[in-house]
Amino acid sequence: MEYLKLNPTTATEAELKAAISCNSKTFRLMSSKVEELKRVIAAAKAKAKSKSDFTATIEFTEPPRTVTVEINKEFEEEVDYYFSELNQLTLEELESDIEDVLPARSHNEYERILRRLQAELLRNINEVREFINAEDLSISDRAELETDIALDQKKILAIHAVLHKTQDVLTATEPVNNDLILVPTSGGNIRILDEIEHIDLSYYHKFEGLISSIKNGTFKGVKKLHGELAGLTEVKDRPSGARVTFMRLDKNTYAIISAFIKRSDNSAGYQKMVANSYQSYREIEPVLKANLSNPEFIKLNQDYEQELFRKLNPTSDSKKAPVYELGGAK
Amino acid sequence: MLDLLKQIHDAQSELDTALSLQDEKVVFYKEFFDKYNCNSATELLKVDTCDLVIAALAAHDDSLSITELKDSIYPNRSLIESLDHESLEEIVNIISNLENLGILEVVIDHLENGTYQATRLRERYKPEYSFAKATAEVAQEKETTPQAFAKFLKLLYSDTTVATQIEDEELENAYYLLPYVLEYKIVLDEFRREREIYDGLFAFIEDISGSKIKSRKKGRLIATLDSGSGYNAPAILKVISSIRRYSVQKASEEAAKIKKETKERKSYEDLADTLYKALSDKNVEAKVPEKVVSKVPNANIRTAALRLIYNHNMPLYEQKEQEYVRLAANDTSHYQVLLAKYGISPDSYEVGTVMNSPLADVEIMLQTLIKLNFDNPRMLLGIIQTSNLETITNYATLVEKGIITNALLQDNPTVLNPSSKDYENMMRNLALVQEKKINPYYFTATEEILLTKHQVFSHNIETLESYQLTQSMKTGMDSTFLSSPDLTTAIDTLLELGYEQNLEKSIGLLNYRDRFNRLQLLKALNIPVETTDEMLTVLTTDKFFVPDSNIDSYLYNAAKFYLPSSVTVTDEHKVKSTDLAKLEDFDASKRTYEIAGVPISKNKVMRNLSRLSPTGKTKDRLIYSILSGSTLTDEETNKIVSTLSDTKTTPPVVLKK
User: Fold this and answer.
1) Contact across the interface for B355 and A38, Cβ inside 8 Å
2) Per-residue confidence (pLDDT) for residue A69, from 0 to 100
3) Minimal-distance CA residue of chain B relative to A116
4) Is 50 exceeded by the pLDDT of residue B152?
5) What does the CA dihedral B169, B172, B173, B174 come to, rounded to 10 degrees?
6) H or E element that contains B400
């Protein structure tokens, strides 16, 4: 498809005639081809345009921002437990009992929990201050609230003091070794010893760890229960579902109520079983508290305790409950 | 075109001239038959002898012109009318003798020029003069002039010349016209004579009988008489008939000639019109039918017309050829072949989008993208569908200079789309960096920041400038903080927590602005955090003792209770330097005041002040500007207010509920 090209000045009539005729045919053919190509290209482009919602497949990604730390449920439950204990401390008890309501120094989240307790106290204070600033209060009410603020401020300072005890003081302090009272059933049997019998041996070391954490004040996975179980606390090994419910009877004595395996917190069967054992405990609690000064009662319970640990750890030669020295001291 | 039109015009003019000249024979015969109605004997009697001789001779010999015949016959009317066999022989002899002597032409010349007067010497030495004189005398005898007689002789003589070139038979009959002249004259004479006889006879009979003879009877009687006397009456009719036939033939020839010339003239008109229309638009191919050109009789004009058509069409043809070559090179199949080389198998829609860029550009785009480590065919296709050569080349240059990396482009391919927001933001941000003379390599560690919405990026750069912190930027820093909608609060927080030095040295602290409330909580709990490393530990730990989402609920801000209610927040306006004069004594650093031991951001004060109505007490406006946006304890707030008031106040001074 080429044109006949010649020198028009020198070309003859016949040559010009032939070139014009031939070129005109070529031009028609070329024009037809051009139109066809244009149609094809236009059709292709028109089709492309018809998809007006086209966007590139990969969108711009926002620059990474600081990742917000998720709330750790277990940590929050532990804080909830210690803070409830701390709140119960009166100004008079503060100096002597402060460390009894705090986790043992050997707790792996010790400082974090104490800082958080300070923060919770601060929040209490702030809440009161906001209230004082925002409301028109009587002098007596205001004075009462100022007293609450002062108590919480003292608790903050007390925790601060605990956190900043010198190494010498820490060395001289004995490790936490709480006393345990194994709660009996209405029939007179020790509930936990009966319950252990019905639990697979493979869980025993989990229960040993949980009861030991009550003994040494680290309270593994401690949680204050709420609702109809309000007041009851439990330690738990979340992966295995091993749980032990307990109650604080006095400064460093804890009632061990029940032991069981339950992976879900919201099981109706679990709620009912725990409620029953808690109810049973509540009935016997005054008796237990009354006997805390009874040496025979204490001795008997020490035997139960040893039996419990023997059952949970048959390979242990110790005939006594283990004394835990985990680096912390009161 | 103008030259050709001129040629056409000239050719037409020639034809016009030819058409305007009528053939003299046609004219002569028309006049002849107009003058002599030869349809009856009476009319035939009116025919002039010379007119008849001219008409008959012209018809007899087509080569004889009417003018020539008229010039030769009319002046010799007496000679013609008196011509008989004797005088015919005499004239033949004169011509024959003179010709034999070889002086016929010379004698004719002398007679025509009037130089036939013989002198003594002429007669002696130039005998032709004597012959000329003698011939002139013959002419006079025959009642004609020497000049007219010369023309008559010349007609006869020239005729012999012509005759010698034709046929042998005619060669023997030299001066053959002369007998014809005599014949025509005699035919007419005899006709007239016979008519006179018959007329006399008919008159005599009518006179005797006393009654008129009917024309029909006269005709029959004439025919009987002619037959009896041996007179060939139709001879005159034959002559007239031959004249009429010839005149008709000439008229027909003339008509044919006019038709032909008219046709030729029209062919020029057609060519001119067709060319004018065909060549009027240079963007349209000139189409001139071949028959329009071929009908033109002038070969030069035909060639010139064809040359014009050729020259007109060639640029158009070449333009079409270029378009064809371009389109053929850019058609769908070419794109598909090219894309296939890169493993791309597009559908027809995708090819269409790619075809928005020329094929050559697409090839360079693909080569460049491959160099930029784009190897996923779908990704390549997506980019060339929406990008262009200039954009991709620009990015390749940025990568080559190390300002951005391949990874940025691969992670954010929309940046290669010039109509995308990413592209616009990136280009405007880089332009701002250049304008502010900020080292572009500051952003290499966190290059995605260049994709930040330009309004935000620009605002943050200006914020850093206003806090004199641009000099704290450095190569390798984490500049992610520049994507924050606003940095002023974060900077003010660090300044008012007393971390001005830390910020100046580690501007990257701003990346943790969402966790600055941790620092505020630690301050509220009197837990000291001093070094930048300690700050980073606090800001980066995932085990901070209060969940980030709840920290604000642990913070108490007394400042809000001390905001003077007398001030009015209004539109932004310029702050007078006098408004800040009271704070000059508290100037602690280039970015902070220190009032009662509490660091306060200067920019924050200025910003707050610019939004307050400049009415009312300056002190109240200052207190408002200092406290607003700060997180302070009751004690700190009280001290600030007291210091500025020069009087102790009991908190809260003014409660704003």
Assistant:
1) no
2) 57
3) B545
4) yes
5) 130
6) helix B389-400
From the CA of B604, how many Å to the nearest CA of chain A?
A: 25
Q: Cβ(B559)–Cβ(B628) under 8 Å?
A: yes
Chain A CA closest to residue B312:
A20
CB spacing of A45 vs B515 below 8 angstroms: no
Interface test with B, best of A12, A22, A37 (most B CBs within 10 A): A37
Of B285, B352, B383, the CB nearest to A48: B352
Alpha carbon B206 to chain centroid, angstroms: 95
CA distance B57 to chain A (A): 47
DSSP letter at B230 equals: T
* Residues on chain A touching B300 (C-beta within 8 angstroms): none
User: CB under 8 Å to A212, separation ≥6 — which residues?
Assistant: A322, A324
Cβ separation of A64 and B309 shorter than 8 Å?
no
The one-character DSSP state at B536 is H
pLDDT over 70 for what percent of chain B? 91
Q: What share of chain B is helix, strand, coil (3-state, %, to 5)?
A: 70, 0, 30
State phi, psi for B527 to the nearest 5 degrees.
-95, 115
Which residues 6+ apart lie within 8 Å of B541 measured at CB?
Answer: none
Residue appearing with tokens 């100004």: A91
What does the pLDDT look like over B372-387, one tens digit per residue?
A: 999 899 999 999 988 9
Q: Which two tokens stand for residue B462?
A: 């200006």
**A 6-25 residues inside an 8 A Cβ radius of B:** 6, 8-9, 11-13, 16-17, 19-21, 23-24
pLDDT band at residue B657 under the 50/70/90 scheme? very low
A326, A328, A182: which is closest to A254 by C-alpha?
A: A182
Q: Pick from B43, B65, B40: which is nearest to B54 by CA?
A: B65
Highest mean pLDDT among A200-214, A263-277, B640-654 belongs to A200-214
ipTM greater than cut 0.85: no
Does the pLDDT value for residue B580 go beyond 50? yes
pLDDT in tens, A89-106: 999 999 888 999 999 988
CA distances to B530, B558, B638 from B495, rounded to whole Å, are 13, 18, 20
Size of interface A-B (CB pairs under 8 A): 187
- Return mean pLDDT, chain B: 85
Query: Residue A156 is encoded by which pair of tokens?
Result: 């903050």
The full 3-state SS of chain A, as one line of letters, equals CCCCCCCCCCCCHHHHHHHHHHHHHHHHHHHHHHHHHHHHHHHHHHHHHHCCCCCCCCCCCCCCCCCCCCCCHHHHHHHHHHHHHHHCCCHHHHHHHHHHCCCCCCCCCHHHHHHHHHHHHHHHHHHHHHHHHHCCCCHHHHHHHHHHHHHHHHHHHHHHHHHCCCHHHHHHCCCCCCEEEECECCCCCEHHHHHHHCCCHHHHHHHHHHHHHHHCCCCCCCEECCHHHCCCEEEEECCCCEEEEEEEEECCEEEEEEEEECCCCCCHHHHHHHHHHHHHHHHHHHHHHHCCCCHHHHHHHHHHHHHHHHHHCCCCCCCCCCCCCCCCCC
Chain B contact for A218 (CB, 8 A cutoff): no
Q: From CA B124, how far away is CA B134, in angstroms rounded?
A: 15
Q: B469-508 as b/e, with b when 16 or more CB fall inside 10 Å?
A: bbebbeeebbbbbbbbeebbebbbbbbbbbbbebbbebbb
Say if strands B592-595 and A223-224 run parallel, antiparallel, or are unpaired.
unpaired
Within chain A, what is the greatest distance between any pair of CA atoms? 143
Q: Within 13 Å and on the Cβ side, how many CA atoms surround B502? A: 18
The tens digit of pLDDT for each residue in B209-252 reads 888 877 777 777 776 766 666 666 567 778 888 888 998 998 89
Residue B67 has pLDDT above 80, yes or no: yes
How many other C-beta atoms lie within 10 A of the C-beta of residue B28? 21
